[in-house]
């Protein structure tokens, strides 16, 4: 191929290459020819060669040797060469390369050129790849062009100023007066650039934001002109006059009206006009309406206007476009706490979206449906949610079950309904529920003394039907062990009569013990239930003794320990067996920090659980190594390693002390601790307050309650606490009460930390606080050196 072939011929040759090797050969020959012609002093085809090199760069091949040619062509007086040179600079140069500094003077000269198109080339290049140094040098030139009489240049200069403000924040004050004057322009391109520039200025400087609030009447007039103007072929898009400018103005009004009643009042009428006059049958109109809704919901708007905005989102839910339905539910999710009644009007449509085929729409609909559950609609909403649970995708089942449990606990009309609902979830999705579900349901059943007979019969039927759902089997075994006498009596009035013999009950428990589907924890429940039946039946005690003795040599240590203890009860302490295995008393609620999964905030959220072994990092977004070391470096350079533990979910089988193993017949249900000591603040920063209270459980045991609150005007999500203590101290973090801190302290997150200090070392604890506020992640660490209310000698 000849070195002087036109660009089109080179493209044709490259496309006709049959293999990648042949393509590389064509490009290498052409690049060699281009490089040779670049070395010639008098080269009339420089722009032609650089254009071919840019095409090679677009294909992903090296083209860096053309950078200096770009610099030379930018300095050329000919427009045709400047155009290709500036294009090459935007593609081949960036602010990190020294060659970019060489074009600063050329750009400055071209900004003062008499030809508007040459000025435009310089403005586009600076806006594309201008470094901070270039921006500082050329900012006065851009400010001068913002005041020029040419609308074409002012439009380009405004967008260039946006880039400069993003690169060098302090230069925003330079452009503020010119940006204000641009709002009087009639040209839509200039107005669009001015609005974008003002948005950038207001977002970066609160003082500038306050100054630009005076422009709200001007923006309202511009917006009214767009809404009420007739057909304009130059700006019309599907019947909407310049929707791009309308969206930008609405976004700016949202920023100016946020937390300001005066500015909000000035734009209320306009927003109502836009909401009622914009055509919603086209995507363009929906874009304007959506931006209007966001503005109404973000400013201090009137209640009627907010209802109108919610109704617009309700219409979006009926749209055939799934994207529009998704953004509608996302917006409704944000306001369901403040405009609950308005969102409730669209409950039927939201529930219908649970049947959507799109997984994202289905997930958003589930979250919004759970947020809409209240005491007045609990029965109808739960019916829909349980129907969804039976057919929902596996990835949503855990979230749905968790939300149903929380809603049932908060709004259950009766204890029987509450128990029936939880059993329905366990039967449908027992393998997807969280660990704390089992102790929660056991506590509920224990407190409903008049429903013991009904519950044990229903659970016995469920156990016979399916033993694959581990959570269901664990609760059923516990109830059979506790209320086996009621099951054998068979005279339950609340359900159909069922005659169960002693052998039937023991057969069911033995089936669980022998099933390959049973987990070690489930076998522990079944073995304890079998042992408890020895005091509730009369004819099969020897069979129970033989079952228990078999598991005295079980490979599972926990199960073996239980069996050995139960054998000891039969052999050495048979006179105490009836007292030890008597029915459990009513289980009281634990201390405020241990809520058994109850969420104390306003919104119902799924709280993920995790367990982390000693030495592993938590499953959180990656953190810099130095930050992890900060948390671990509790003793300031000590060689003693530490334990790092995030908040895990509740364990079914909690570790017990040596003296309590014999009586630990429920495998993990702990007695209610004493009332905690008064809380003292240990952290106050950014509106987040963390208080600490201590409760001494024994000579070496200590329970620490950490309570977090949020006093700011913004909600906090993904709130987590991590703790580190010296290695000689044993640490166990229980499930937190939530991960969501609503604004203005309306709810708190409570975290219980159990410490065991057998060596009685000087106790210290370092806590890492992580959360997200307004889409920004925050993290901080606090060290706790003193624990109020404790004896210094003990800890």
Automatic annotation (TrEMBL):
Subcellular localization: Cytoplasmic vesicle membrane; Endomembrane system; Golgi apparatus
Topology versus the membrane: Peripheral membrane protein
Record has Transport as a keyword: yes
Alphabetical list of PANTHER family matching this protein: ADAPTIN, ALPHA/GAMMA/EPSILON
Entry's family note: Belongs to the adaptor complexes large subunit family.
Protein name, as recorded: AP-1 complex subunit gamma
Lineage: Eukaryota, Metazoa, Chordata, Craniata, Vertebrata
InterPro entries assigned to the protein according to its UniProt record, in alphabetical order: Adaptor_Complx_Large_Subunit (IPR050840), AP1_complex_gsu (IPR017107), ARM-like (IPR011989), ARM-type_fold (IPR016024), Clathrin/coatomer_adapt-like_N (IPR002553), Clathrin_a/b/g-adaptin_app_Ig (IPR008152), Clathrin_app_Ig-like_sf (IPR013041), GAE_dom (IPR008153)
SUPFAM superfamilies: ARM repeat, Clathrin adaptor appendage domain
GO BP terms, alphabetized: intracellular protein transport; vesicle-mediated transport
GAE domain ranges (all copies): 675-788
Organism of derivation: Zoarces viviparus
Keyword field: Cytoplasmic vesicle, Golgi apparatus, Membrane, Protein transport, Transport
Annotated Gene3D superfamilies: 2.60.40.1230, Leucine-rich Repeat Variant (1.25.10.10)
Record-level GO cellular component terms: AP-1 adaptor complex
């Amino acid at each position: 191929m000849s070195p002087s072939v036109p660009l089109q011929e080179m493209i044709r040759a490259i496309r006709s290459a049959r293999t990648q090797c042949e393509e590389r050969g064509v490009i290498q020959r052409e690049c060699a020819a281009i490089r040779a012609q670049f070395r010639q002093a008098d080269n009339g085809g420089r722009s032609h060669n650089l254009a071919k090199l840019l095409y090679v760069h677009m294909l992903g091949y090296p083209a860096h040797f053309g950078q200096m040619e770009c610099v030379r062509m930018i300095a050329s007086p000919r427009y045709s060469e400047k155009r290709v040179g500036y294009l090459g600079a935007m593609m081949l140069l960036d602010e990190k390369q020294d060659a970019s500094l060489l074009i600063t003077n050329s750009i400055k000269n071209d900004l003062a050129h008499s030809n508007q198109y040459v000025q435009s080339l310089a403005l586009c290049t600076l806006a594309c790849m201008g470094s901070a140094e270039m921006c500082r040098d050329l900012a006065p030139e851009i400010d001068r062009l913002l005041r020029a009489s040419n609308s074409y240049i002012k439009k380009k200069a405004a967008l260039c100023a946006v880039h400069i403000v993003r690169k060098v924040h302090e230069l925003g004050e330079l452009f503020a007066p010119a940006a204000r004057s641009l709002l009087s322009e009639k040209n839509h391109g200039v107005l669009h650039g001015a609005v974008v520039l003002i948005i950038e200025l207001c977002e970066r400087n609160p003082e500038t934001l306050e100054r630009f609030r005076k422009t709200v009447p001007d923006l309202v007039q511009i917006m009214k002109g767009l809404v009420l103007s007739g057909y304009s072929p130059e700006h019309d898009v599907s019947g909407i006059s310049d929707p791009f400018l309308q969206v930008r103005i609405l976004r700016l009004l949202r920023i100016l009206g946020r937390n300001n009643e005066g500015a909000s009042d000035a734009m209320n009428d306009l927003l109502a006009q836009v909401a009622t006059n914009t055509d919603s049958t086209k995507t363009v109109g929906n874009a304007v309406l959506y931006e209007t809704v966001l503005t109404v919901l973000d400013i201090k708007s009137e209640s009627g206007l907010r209802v109108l905005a919610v109704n617009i989102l309700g219409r979006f839910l009926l749209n055939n476009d799934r994207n529009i339905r998704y953004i509608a539910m996302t917006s409704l999710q944000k306001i369901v706490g403040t405009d609950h009644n308005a969102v409730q009007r669209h409950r039927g449509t939201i529930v219908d979206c649970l049947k959507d085929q799109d997984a994202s729409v289905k997930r958003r609909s589930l979250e919004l449906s759970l947020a809409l559950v209240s005491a007045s609609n609990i029965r109808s909403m739960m019916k829909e949610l349980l129907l969804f649970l039976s057919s929902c995708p596996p990835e949503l089942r855990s979230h749905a079950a968790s939300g149903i449990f929380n809603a049932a606990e908060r709004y259950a009309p009766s204890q029987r309904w509450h128990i029936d609902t939880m059993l329905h979830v366990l039967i449908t999705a027992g393998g997807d529920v969280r660990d704390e579900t089992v102790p929660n349901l056991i506590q509920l059943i224990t407190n409903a003394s008049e429903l013991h007979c009904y519950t044990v019969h229903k659970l016995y039927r469920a156990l016979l039907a399916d033993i694959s759902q581990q959570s269901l089997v664990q609760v059923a075994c516990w109830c059979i062990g506790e209320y086996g006498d009621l099951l054998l009596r068979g005279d339950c009035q609340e359900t159909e009569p069922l005659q169960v013999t002693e052998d039937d009950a023991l057969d069911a428990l033995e089936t669980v013990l022998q099933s390959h589907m049973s987990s070690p924890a489930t076998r522990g429940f079944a073995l304890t239930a079998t042992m408890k039946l020895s005091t509730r039946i009369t004819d099969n005690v020897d069979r129970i003794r033989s079952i228990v003795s078999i598991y005295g040599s079980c490979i599972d240590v926990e199960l073996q320990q239980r069996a050995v203890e139960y054998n000891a009860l039969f052999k050495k302490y048979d006179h105490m067996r009836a007292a030890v295995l008597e029915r459990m008393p009513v289980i009281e609620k634990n201390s405020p920090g241990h809520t058994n999964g109850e969420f104390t905030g306003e919104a119902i959220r799924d709280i993920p659980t995790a367990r982390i072994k000693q030495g592993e990092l938590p499953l959180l977004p990656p953190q810099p190594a130095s930050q992890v070391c900060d948390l671990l470096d509790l003793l300031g350079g000590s060689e003693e390693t530490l334990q790092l533990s995030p908040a895990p979910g509740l364990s079914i089988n909690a570790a017990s002390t040596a003296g309590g193993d014999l009586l630990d017949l429920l495998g993990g249900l702990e007695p209610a601790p004493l009332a905690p000591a008064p809380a003292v603040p240990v952290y106050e920063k950014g509106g987040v307050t963390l208080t600490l209270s201590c409760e001494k459980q024994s000579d070496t045991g200590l329970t620490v309650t950490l309570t977090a609150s949020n006093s700011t005007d913004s909600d906090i999500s993904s709130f987590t606490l991590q703790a580190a203590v010296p290695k000689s101290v044993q640490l166990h973090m229980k499930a937190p009460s939530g991960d969501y801190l609503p604004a203005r302290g309306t709810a708190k997150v409570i975290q219980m930390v159990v410490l065991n200090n057998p060596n009685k070392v000087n106790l210290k604890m370092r806590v890492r606080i992580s959360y997200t506020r307004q889409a920004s992640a925050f993290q901080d660490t606090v060290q706790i050196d003193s624990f109020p209310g404790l004896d210094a000698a003990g800890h």
